[in-house]
Amino acid sequence: MDLMMVKDVMLGKNGKTILTGPLLLESFSRRSEVEKAFGERVLVSNDAGKRLFVPVSGVSVSQAMSGNWQVSIAIDYPENMHKIALDSLVSS
Question: Are 17 and 73 in contact (CB under 8 A)?
Fold first, then answer.
């Protein structure tokens, strides 16, 4: 299931990688449901086209003034891998 689209990638505290972008889930009523959908690991794409599962260590959900939902997730992304591709999908 596609969860979000990556629009920004940042390095966070303790070596975590932070992915931010629009939420693609449509049927949810609480933030906790979104957090649960991301689970313990997600599938991400790097700029070389390879997809791999990475552990999720945090999820933050917010609603923009436009009404669109944004999500940021903290992941443990291996340092020896290519960069995460922008405009790629994060899936469960």
Answer: no
Question: What DSSP character marks residue 79?
Answer: T
Among the listed residues 49, 50, 41, 47, the one whose alpha carbon sits nearest the alpha carbon of residue 73: 41
Q: Which tokens go with 7?
A: 């629009």
For 31, counting Cβ atoms within 10 Å of its Cβ (0-12 exposed, 13-18 middle, 19+ buried), the class is middle
pLDDT one-digit tens code per residue, 10-39: 998 888 999 999 999 988 888 889 999 999
pTM: predicted TM-score of the whole model, two decimal places: 0.91
Question: Can you tell me the distance from the alpha carbon of 63 to that of 22, in angstroms, rounded to the nearest whole number?
Answer: 10
What are the start-end ranges of the E strands in 1-92? 2-5, 8-11, 17-22, 41-45, 51-63, 69-75, 89-91
Q: Distance between CA 44 and CA 42 in Å, rounded?
A: 6
